Amino acid sequence: MADPLQKKILLVDDESDVTDLLDYKLRQAGYAVRTLNDSLRALSMARDFRPDLIVLDVMMPELTGLQLLRMLRSDSLLRDLPVILLTARIETEDRVRGLEIGADDYVPKPFDTRELLLRIQALLKRTPHSAAGNPAKFAAGSIVLDIDRHEVQVAGKPIDLTATEFNLLRLLLERKGRVQTRDRLLADVWNYSADLETRTVDTHIRRLREKLGAAADEIETIRGVGYKIGG
User: Which of 96, 175, 193, 195 could disulfide-pair with 186, CB 3.0 to 4.6 Å?
Assistant: First the structure.
């Protein structure tokens, strides 16, 4: 009988040697794993398996990883799933494009399996929870963030955020009135900063503001430094 607390990972890559290797390593690390070499079946598999995280290759025939990512982010059941992109294309524009669509992380091929496992672990640790004595809700203006329900409302209406956008907004609200540098946000939201550019933060802030609509001005840009919410 499967452990209900066991985290589930879905791997989608057209190269069977990649999925075979990662399947072995992830199972060794204690994850429940499903693998696919056919990108056309990825959405139905994700709906059936309901993974906690998806590792998705970008360069696949028939349906690319970026096309799949767009479909995931528009699916009401799957839109909040953390997604790590794997790709041999490492140009900055390609990385930014993936992040703009809604990827949570980006790992170039060839990759070190230990590093990928650490990134998976870091993403899974970001699941919001409220410890005893800590507030379960944060607010600024018309924005209300509920940690326990993993919900954000603006003027009483819920808005859809990716896992990364939710955690970025949560961090800014938790540190209300304090300026957060781009480097600090990279370290605290993405859990590392070595090979992500500060442009990553700007991309996610822009997308977050778009979703906040009339409340977008609650996130203040501190020129040359970073961002904050509240005075």
Answer: 193
